[in-house]
Specification:
96 residues, flat, mainly alpha
């Protein structure tokens, strides 16, 4: 008895859901007709040209190297001096 009810409910659900199926999302009678001013070959050529110019690198990923007049030891010495003089904040107090 219980299985008959489950089967009947399932059959009714299938029957009712078939009538709910939607038609086109945008019906043709409600859309404006679009007339292109360019031919297909122009659009294809423009797309091909854009693909040739396209780069897979993110913008700004290539940065030109900066040439420094100081050597590594001089930069380390300046950094150590700045830390001693308190010119470079460090620790949790620097976040405030």
């Amino acid at each position: 008895m219980k299985s008959n009810r489950i089967f009947a409910v399932a059959a009714l659900a299938v029957l009712f859901s078939a009538g709910v199926q939607a038609d086109d999302a945008v019906a043709p009678e409600y859309t404006k007709a679009f007339q292109s001013s360019r031919v297909r070959a122009e659009v294809v050529a423009e797309a091909a040209q854009a693909m040739r110019k396209r780069s897979n690198e993110p913008a700004g990923s290539r940065v030109s190297p900066i040439r420094s007049s100081l050597d590594r030891a001089a930069v380390r010495a300046q950094t150590a001096q700045a830390l001693r003089l308190g010119q470079i904040p460090s620790g949790e107090a620097s976040a405030i």
